[in-house]
Amino acid sequence: MSNDILSVKALRINLSTGQIKEETIDGELVKKYLGGRGLASKILLDEIDPTIDPLSEENKLIFANGLLTGTAVPTAGRYMVVTKGPLTGTIASSNSGGFFGAELRKAGWSLLIIEGKADKPVYISIKDSDVQIKDATHLWGKDTHETTDMLLEEFGDSKARVACIGPAGEKLVKFAAIINDKARAAGRTGVGAVMGSKNLKAVVVRGSERIEVMDKATFMEAIKSKVDIIRKNPITGEGLPKLGTKVLDSIINQSGLYPTKNFQFGTFEYTEEVSGEALVNKGYLKDNKACYACPIGCGRDVELPTGKKGEGPEYESGWAFGADCGVKDLIAVTEANFMCNELGLDTISAGTTLAAAMEMYEKGYLPKEDLENGPELRFGSSEAIIYYLHKIAYREGIGDKLAEGSYRFCSSYGHPEISMTVKKQELPAYDPRGAQGHALEYATSNRGGCHVRGYMISPEILGVPEKLDPQTTEGKAGWVKIFQDLTAVIDSAGLCLFSSFALGADDYAELINAGTGFGLSTDEIMKIGERIWNLERYFNLKAGISPEEDKLPDRFKEPLPDGAQKGSYAHYEELLPEYYKLRGWNEDGTIPEEKLKELEII
After folding, report:
1. CA distances (Å), 563 to each of 260, 301, 554, 566, in order?
2. Is residue 539 within 8 Å of residue 42, measured between CB atoms?
3. Among 28, 71, 391, which residue's Cα sits nearest to residue 211?
4. Which residue in 168, 360, 519, 548 is deepest, having the highest Cβ count within 10 Å?
5. pLDDT (0 to 100) of residue 3
6. DSSP readout, 489-500?
7. Is 373 exposed, middle or buried (0-12, 13-18, 19+ CB in 10 A)?
8. What is the distance between the alpha carbons of residues 485 and 533, in angstroms, rounded to a whole number?
9. Distance of alpha carbon 473 from alpha carbon 496, whole angstroms
């Protein structure tokens, strides 16, 4: 089987019938969508009715490598999981790193399209072109670490890679994740629950083929120049390698948008106890860890005084169980992160759902008897975050309600306003009152509350590529559109978003062209990003997601009570008309037919 960069092969597996089929993706489609997020989203839109129940047999689950995944391009280890998300009802495209995606590509497969539902637990075994559906009854109920170890032994090759679900995916927790390499997660929107709904426990893969590019000399020259840029950049060359993503704790707290106690405050007085610096100073950090082809190495190899070992926590995970839950115990926060990796839970939604429950409990909206003798859900309780994570993953007691996510949980008690969500997905670790562009990005994100669809924290707080006043609204709609479109390109190329701290659109165009010979201009590359963004929006509109859901919780209309940006509130509503206009959409946020035709979506 040819494995050059433009030979985009899909492996279509129907779990209901057991049929396994190889397909070649049309080259023009690849040029229009690149791969990964873009190509898989196009396939999903074409092949399913967007109104279906995400946990029904009709939904499809697509593992999608980017066009450059598995090559020597810096950070080219990313893959996406694309489906209709059970947490939000939107299109879901969840990104993960590690080594699984690259291994799948080296086995010759750019896409793994999973259809139907097995009548018993199964896993998919892939060794180059040898693909089999195997019984996984003995794996059902196992956590992701046990599952990975058992599959590697069965497969007979310790260098194989595994992506799997834990108990949370099996129990259809609305924010269940797919875990690969034991600690990398396709985490958001509940992709693990879709995998569980299909009775698919895992995918194990081993590849042996190199990916051939069009002009190797030009390609390697482009790679070398980008690696140099990344290594010389203060964020990707120094900050992230030294402190990981938790380099952000102190920066965001000092900037006054570090959400605390379910976004009631913008600063956390115990940040120093749970920061990236604390992980180093307390001696818990043992080593850096890098994903495939990554010169940054922001992963954390951690060992606690309790003897527990694992990877992380990342900035978002540490914040979700730390400041958002009011917990200052770094050991408990790290153990909660380990638990999520093992149980297969999205750390952001898990932690922020617990934070919402804590506010509900402290305000008297959540009766004590509903806790069934469990620890009180109070801010600052290390015991509570550990205890209720287990309950959520197994849907035991009140964990069954918490497993639905904070919006449904809070609504069940009559207080949806306590849920800090957009389109039913929990917001990550930046208070939108502290960065106006980021507030607009939250409101308009195609997969609900999300920071990695257009990371406006980069210019508004970190000053990359230039420093913007976080409180000004002028020009922010344009910045958000550019960041959203460029991120769609990065995801579809199979690269890590962190590379964008150092690289720009011209750099990505150069890398894509050097590998493929497409000869695309930077404007054409950005047009691809715009096409992907509009296609996702189109899917959501067809799924019944109204533009009226481009909104933030009412809490953000109230001024921040503390910190460097005390008194500020979110002005995103003022920016929406300008944003819709820049996108070429109708005033009500729908997409006109001529725009869809211009972008060749219909």
Report:
1. 11, 32, 20, 5
2. no
3. 71
4. 168
5. 81
6. HHHHHT--GGGG
7. exposed
8. 6
9. 28
The span from the CA of 39 to the CA of 229, in Å, is 29
CA pair distance 59, 114, nearest whole angstrom = 9
Task: Check if the beta carbon of residue 310 is closer than 8 Å to that of residue 289.
Answer: no
Cα–Cα dist 251/189, whole Å = 27
Taking a C-beta distance cutoff of 8 angstroms, is the pair 351, 317 a contact? Answer: yes
* Structural contact between residues 184 and 100, judged by C-beta atoms closer than 8 angstroms: yes
What 3-state DSSP class applies to 178?
A: strand
Cβ-based burial of 506 (10 A; exposed 0-12, middle 13-18, buried ≥19) = exposed
Q: Is the previous residue joined to 465 through a cis bond, with omega within 30 degrees of 0? A: yes
pLDDT at 1: 54
How many CB atoms are located within 10 Å of the residue 597 CB?
10
Please tell me the predicted confidence (pLDDT) of residue 381. Answer: 98
Residue 93, SS3 per DSSP: strand
Rounded-to-integer distance, Cα 194 and Cα 196, Å? 5
- Looking at the DSSP bridge assignments, the partners of residue 203 are 124, 163
Burial environment of residue 193 by CB neighbours within 10 A (0 to 12, 13 to 18, 19 or more) = buried
The span from the CA of 240 to the CA of 251, in Å, is 13
Q: What backbone phi and psi angles, to 5 degrees, belong to 129?
A: -90, 0
Strand order in the sheet with 122-127: 130-135, 122-127, 200-206, 161-164, 178-180, 184-186
Q: What are phi and psi of 78, to 5 degrees?
A: -90, 145
Copy the structure tokens of residue 93.
């495209």
The Cα–Cα gap between 179 and 189 comes to 14
Q: Are 359 and 264 in contact (CB under 8 A)?
A: yes
> Tokens for 261?
């106690």
**Alpha helix (H) ranges present in 294-415?**
315-321, 330-343, 347-362, 382-393, 399-402, 406-412
Comparing C-alpha atoms, which of 570, 571, 589 is closest to residue 581?
589
Beta strands 122-127 and 200-206 are parallel
The candidate with the shortest Cα–Cα distance to 273, out of 261, 281, 265, is 281
- Give the chain's domains with CATH numbers: 9-206 (3.60.9.10), 259-425 (1.10.569.10), 435-501+521-598 (1.10.599.10)
Dist CA 356 CA 145 (whole Å): 29
3-class DSSP state of 65: strand
Confirm if 206 and 127 have CB atoms less than 8 A apart: yes
Predicted confidence at residue 214, as pLDDT, reads: 85
Q: What is the mean pLDDT of each run of 10 residues along the chain (602 residues)?
A: 85 98 96 97 98 98 97 97 98 97 97 98 98 98 98 97 98 98 96 98 96 92 97 96 95 98 98 96 94 96 95 96 98 98 98 98 98 97 98 98 98 98 98 98 97 97 97 98 98 98 97 95 98 98 98 98 98 98 98 98 96
- Tokens found for residue 236: 């990707």
User: How far apart, in Å, are the Cα atoms of 148 and each of 272, 299, 597?
Assistant: 35, 19, 45
Q: Give the Cα separation of 577 and 189 in Å (integer).
A: 27
What radius of gyration do the chain's Cα atoms show?
A: 22
Supply the DSSP symbol for 260.
B
